[in-house]
Specification:
Layout: E1 9-13, E2 16-19, H1 23-33, E3 39-42, E4 56-57, H2 59-68, H3 71-77, E5 79-80, E6 83-88, E7 91-97, E8 109-110, H4 113-128, H5 130-136, E9 137-138, E10 141-148, E11 156-162, H6 166-173, E12 183-186, H7 193-197, E13 205-206, E14 213-214, E15 224-229, E16 231-234, H8 241-246, E17 250-267, E18 276-282, E19 285-294, E20 325-338, H9 359-367, E21 374-391, E22 395-396, E23 399-401, E24 407-408, H10 416-437, H11 445-463, H12 466-471, H13 474-482, H14 484-488, H15 491-502, E25 534-537, E26 547-550, H16 551-555, E27 560-567, H17 580-585, H18 591-613, E28 617-624, H19 639-654, E29 663-667, H20 672-676, E30 690-695, E31 701-706, H21 710-719
Parallel strand pairs: 1-15, 2-3, 2-16, 3-9, 6-18, 16-23, 27-28, 28-29
Antiparallel strand pairs: 4-8, 5-8, 6-7, 10-11, 11-15, 12-21, 13-14, 17-20, 17-21, 18-19, 19-20, 21-24, 22-23, 25-26, 25-29, 27-30, 30-31
């Protein structure tokens, strides 16, 4: 049952095997690397993607990039998109401007997948160092067999082989998934010598005529890897070897049309709004197009955004932020070509693949919809089958599926690339807690419970009526002209749809095991993404100027965050009639200060209990009056200075090994925290003076409640037994 090789073998032991080095696999690798987890990545391709492929980057993904430390580079290479236009029979039917979502990165970004992968590879190399990077990312390597256990001790065993022949490497890499196309590459299949002489393993199967269960033998010419690990993650695209090895059904259907995708230099009559996606339809014809960012070659380092550059949120309307630039004649084109309706599913396995059209054919196809089109040059092109499919399971034993290996769908609203990155961001920290911190492996069950509903929902959302839309026949065309504008002109519909495609709306279920119970029904709820807000950091050193920062910047890092929001009384609320400003500035002892001091004692005690379960927890104490307010001076010996010093002293006494930056004190300068976390705090009201939010590594709320609510606090602590049994 072992792999047989014609050349040298290498035995490897690691924690996690990642199959596939697209954006999903690379994000997962970064998440593991920055938490100190050992891993190895295998990818069939000899190098990263150089084509544009996946272009749309949604606001939630930009927030993830901020946490990973690559958002400035992404913004400097991308173009902000303001909306989408629908043309029916040559006339605009819908001119949709995206609403602003509740995110600092309020609009989607147009960014080459080649640039995305370059930035992710650079970040991974910066964490690992060049020597470790060369070992951790193995190309071109094909996984040939997979044995998966069901307990932590059993782990997984993978055999892989180096595709040392470049021609063999390219042949085996054909059909590699293109994340965010929502589909599967269709190319002319090429057969290599290795393919004609080898038998591929799809998990535990009957080997030959022996009837014995075990991995089949794969004969190869290159280097052989025998890898033992705790877990394996399939990020290997729509034709996922890992998924097939596990015997997981890929449920759904294939639309009897294929996409033709091309990056071109062209001249045509489409209005040159460079910051909108465009969908052009006519009966039985469709072209989707958007501008391509121009700039340096993908082989060159991207220009860096200076500190303090274009990361300030654009408020309201106005021109788009042009982080990169758009050439006047470089476009991404997507059109359709019919395939045989009796066997469309054959396209999923590339059994009836056809090569993409020539420049002449592509021009003819486009000119049928936009007369006078002249294509000067085809930069890159491919053809894709259009699939609406979801894996029946995203976890089986010690194996996981992520990205296109778990779900593929039409490229409506550019969801695929972003959904895969969300999968990796959800899974990485959980693997790290189990492997590095001794958390219960049951924590990993929450991955499928949280991410499969997300993937299934995107499949339904992007697939509903898609075939009818791209064909635009009869009443569908009439409806697109006359009915759709009514919806898109509705502010509530626009806001809801924009929020949905941004992926900031995603909420994980309470029963997932990694999300706690609801104790404050009208506040930000467990499972929701933690909202962002502007705050001022208050140092324990005397200062009169606040260091303004966003909460998501405070949250950056590989660990949980415990946020306490403490309500300071207004002048009309306190027993002594003192204003919050005088309270914080005064050097005298007041009734308000004594009450707040007692509340802080309870906060310190609860924070200590949380840190005893999850040591890597950043504690953030935030003062608020519930309204926009001036940051009070932190003068030496003032009330505020005393409170901060006392709080930090207690925290450092309880956790002497904790770094000072792991405890942060801030002021809610705009009242945004109160609004966005939907808090209704009342000073001097028992159990409603302060609230807590335990925020996971992926910046979703795990637990919440009022400080002093012993049941809410005890439930939170008990639920953390998964992390520290």
């Amino acid at each position: 049952g072992d792999c047989v090789a014609d050349s040298m073998e290498e035995e490897i032991k690691t924690d996690v095997i990642i199959v596939g080095a697209g954006p999903t696999g690379l994000v997962l690798a970064i998440e593991l690397a920055r938490r100190g987890v050992d891993f190895i990545v295998f990818d069939k391709l000899p190098d990263r993607t150089r084509e544009s492929r996946a272009l749309g980057v949604m606001p939630r993904t930009l927030e993830i990039y901020e946490d990973l430390g690559i958002v400035k580079q992404a913004l400097s290479n991308g173009v902000e998109m303001l909306g989408e236009r629908l043309f029916v029979d040559g006339t605009v039917a819908v001119d949709w401007n995206f609403s602003e979502v509740d995110s600092f990165y309020c609009k989607p970004l147009l960014l080459h997948q080649g640039v995305t992968e370059k930035l992710l590879c650079e970040k991974l190399a910066a964490i690992l160092g060049p020597d470790r990077m060369n070992y951790a990312l193995q190309r071109p390597v094909e996984v040939t067999s997979l044995k998966v256990g069901h307990t932590f001790a059993e782990g997984v065993h993978v055999c892989a082989c180096s595709l040392s022949d470049p021609e063999e490497s390219n042949a085996n890499a054909e059909g590699q998934h293109s994340e965010d196309t929502g589909s599967v590459d269709n190319v002319t299949p090429r057969t290599s010598e290795a393919e004609t002489t080898s038998s591929m393993t799809y998990g535990w199967t009957t080997s030959g005529d022996t009837g014995q269960q075990g991995p089949r033998t794969h004969r190869i010419r290159g280097k052989q890897f025998n890898v033992h690990a705790r877990y394996v993650v399939g990020c290997d695209g729509a034709r996922s070897f890992v998924r097939k090895s596990l015997g997981i059904p890929f449920e759904g259907f294939t639309i009897p049309s294929e996409f033709i995708v091309a990056d071109v230099v062209m001249t045509w009559g489409v209005p040159p709004d460079r910051n909108k996606f465009n969908l052009l339809t006519a009966p039985n014809r469709m072209v989707e197009c958007c501008p391509l960012p121009s700039g340096p070659s993908l082989l060159e380092p991207p220009p860096r955004l200076p500190d303090g550059g274009a990361t300030h949120r654009r408020q309201g309307g106005g021109a788009a932020r042009q982080y990169g630039s758009s050439s006047s004649n470089r476009w991404r084109l997507t059109t359709i070509r019919r395939i045989a309706e009796d066997r469309p599913e054959a396209m999923l396995e590339c059994r009836e693949a056809r090569p993409p059209p020539s420049k002449k054919e592509l021009q003819a196809m486009t000119a049928k919809l936009v007369a006078g089109t002249i294509i000067d040059h085809v930069i890159w092109s491919s053809s894709f089958s259009i699939n609406c499919r979801s894996a029946a399971f995203m976890k089986r034993g010690n194996a996981f599926l992520a990205g296109d290996a778990a779900h593929i769908f039409p490229p409506l609203f550019h969801q695929g690339h972003n959904t895969g990155i969300g999968d990796a961001y959800n899974l990485g920290w959980k693997l790290a807690h189990v492997l590095q911190d001794g958390a219960n492996p049951a924590l990993l069950e929450s991955y499928e419970q949280e991410r499969k509903p997300v993937g299934d929902a995107v499949v339904r959302f992007t697939s509903f009526g898609y075939q009818e839309i791209i064909e635009a026949k009869g009443y569908i065309a009439w409806s697109m002209k006359n009915i759709l504008p009514l919806f898109f002109n509705n502010k509530a519909f626009n806001s809801a749809l924009t929020n949905r495609i941004s992926q900031c709306h995603i909420k994980y279920p309470v029963d997932s095991g990694a999300v706690g119970k609801v104790f404050v029904s009208d506040s930000a709820l467990p499972g929701e993404r933690a909202p962002d807000a502007t705050v001022a950091i208050i140092s324990s050193e005397p200062s009169t100027v606040g260091n303004f920062i966003r909460l998501h910047e405070v949250y950056v890092g590989s660990g949980h965050v415990l946020l306490f929001v403490l309500r300071i009384p207004l002048s009309s609320e306190g027993p002594s009639g003192s204003s919050w400003f005088n309270l914080c500035s005064s050097q005298s002892q007041t009734a308000e200060r004594n009450i707040i001091g007692k509340e802080l004692e309870q906060i310190v005690e609860f924070a200590s209990r949380v840190r005893s379960r999850i040591e890597k927890t950043k504690v953030v104490l935030l003062f608020t009056v519930g309204l926009a307010s001036i940051v009070p001076p932190n003068a030496q010996f003032s009330g505020l200075s005393f409170l901060i010093a006392n709080f930090k002293e207690r925290m450092s006494k309880n956790f002497p090994n904790q770094a000072p930056e792991e405890t942060c004190v801030a002021w809610d300068v705009e009242g945004e925290v109160t609004r966005r976390y939907r808090l209704h705090l009342h000073p001097f009201t028992k159990h409603k003076c302060a609230a807590f939010f335990l925020i996971r590594d992926d910046k979703h709320i795990r637990n919440h409640g009022y400080c002093g609510d012993t049941y809410a606090e005890a439930t939170c602590i008990d639920s953390l037994s998964l992390y520290h049994p």
